[in-house]
Amino acid sequence: MPRSVTRTLRLKVRGESYPWLQAAATEVNRVYNYCNEICVHTALRTDTLRKWLTGFDLCGLTAGSSECFEHIGADTIQRICIEYAAKRTAARRLKLRWRVSRGARRSLGWIPFKAASLKRQGRSVRFCGKTFRLFEAERLEAVKWKQGCFAQDAVGDWWLCLPVEPAVEDRPAPQEAVGIDLGLKEVAVTSQGERLEAARFYRNLEQRIAQAQRRGHKRQAKRLHRKAARCRADALHKFSRRMVDRYQNIYVGDVSSLGLVKTRMAKSVLDSGWGMLRRCLQYKGEHAGRSVTVVNERHTTRACGGCGALSGPRGPDMLAVRYWRCEHCGEWHDRDVNAARNILRIGSRRRTSVSGNEPSSPALPSQASLRCEAGTSAQRSAA
Ligand SMILES: [Zn+2]
Q1: Helix (H, G, I), strand (E, B) or coil at 29
Q2: For ligand 1, a single-atom ion, which residues have Cβ within 5 Å?
Q3: End-to-end Cα, the chain, rounded Å
């Protein structure tokens, strides 16, 4: 069954167009702020004209306004109205934040458009009567877009973002199931013993970022921040891709970064990107027809993977313990691999709480895991 999957193609725009894009973004902000203002006014009226304006209403109110703008056209104005109304409804607020065009708190530039207003022209694209040259323009070949936007990042570079629908292939994974334990020392450890080392992207660049900030090189500091984020994303993408290519059922611990952010481990937690890894697994798994399940990881570090006794290390003070021996059955455990195995076992037992995409034919747990499960539940009921 063909499934439709949307991914965003991001192409960097060459520098010579930045002044034009900046000017267009200022006009976008004016339209957006007009929508914001008129929506509040209409919603707060006391007479019968009081109304919660929709995107359609806003399009009607802004009709013909493209004459007042030098850069953007009617299609961009309509898209701003629709996007604004959708955002306001989603946020359930009377008013959204203003878009600021200059100063320290200015909003990052954003210029939406409809499919027809972006035209291919050789290796470049044409938009609003201007030609834009792109980096890696060959990626645009054989791509059909519906709509998109030009968006600016924190460093100030502009990107052409196009949602595209790539072809999805459905192949069953060679292996059946895996449990993944998320941690700090290693970002992720699988039940097969594979590790994703914490490369400490931010920590490594921290000194250079601090130096750039002290010297007042704001752009350089932002560039370094972006570099750290990209390195982290690259590692997480590669790891999640490997997992999705290899396993049919993926179980991830539900460790929450929000709780740990307030502790002294905050920087490491934010640097490790658990949330992003989980999101990557979820959407990649969905695209490939895998089931990705988040499992409550309570006791997974303490429980022995062999006999199920809660004999392992506990509490933040025992985080240093990497290897331990079960008091009951005498088995030696690697702390993280043991936790990942427990996550795998809990996950395959609770097949009902699936939050990802169910595979077409649910694979049965292997004989080994069944035996293991039977052993533990027997032990548990005996205890
Ligand atoms: Zn044991």
Answers
A1: helix
A2: 304, 306-307, 326, 328-329
A3: 48
Residue 194 CA to ligand 1 centre (angstroms): 22
Contact 244, 290 (CB under 8 A): yes
Q: Give 383 Cα–ligand 1 centroid separation in angstroms.
A: 13
Interval between CA 334 and ligand 1 midpoint (Å): 13
- Cα of 311 from ligand 1 centre, angstroms: 7
Among 329, 294, 284, smallest CA distance to 311 is for 329
For the chain, how big is the Rg over CA atoms in Å? 26
State the pLDDT at residue 325.
Answer: 87
User: Which residue bears the tokens 């991001």?
Assistant: 10
Residue boundaries of the structural domains of the chain: 7-164, 175-382
Residue 348 half-sphere exposure, CB side, CA atoms within 13 Å? 27
Tens of pLDDT, residues 66-116 = 999 999 999 999 999 999 999 999 999 999 999 999 888 999 999 999 999
380 CA → ligand 1 middle, Å: 12
User: Do the Cβ atoms of 111 and 24 come closer than 8 Å?
Assistant: yes
Cα–Cα distance measured from residue 117 to residue 80, given in angstroms and rounded to the nearest whole number:
14
Q: Considering the domain 175-382 in this protein, what is its CATH number?
A: 3.30.420
Residue 326 — very low, low, confident or very high, per pLDDT cuts 50/70/90? confident
Q: Do residues 262 and 194 make contact, with C-beta atoms less than 8 angstroms apart?
A: no
The rounded Å distance from CA 208 to ligand 1 centre is 47
Residue 120 CA to residue 168 CA, distance in Å, equals 25
**Please, where are the H alpha helices in 73-142?**
74-91
Report CA(377)–ligand 1 centroid distance (Å).
13
The answer to whether the beta carbons of residues 307 and 332 sit under 8 Å apart is no
- Reading the block at residue 271, the tokens are 């640097």
Gap between the Cα atoms of 138 and 132, Å rounded: 14
pLDDT at 64 over 50: yes
Structure tokens at 318: 């025992």
Q: How far is the CA of 256 from the centre of ligand 1 (A)?
A: 27
Long-range contacts of 373-378 (CB under 8 A, 24+ apart): 373/345, 373/348, 373/349, 375/307, 375/308, 376/307, 376/308, 376/345
Cα(183) to centroid(ligand 1), Å:
22
Quote the pLDDT of residue 221.
93
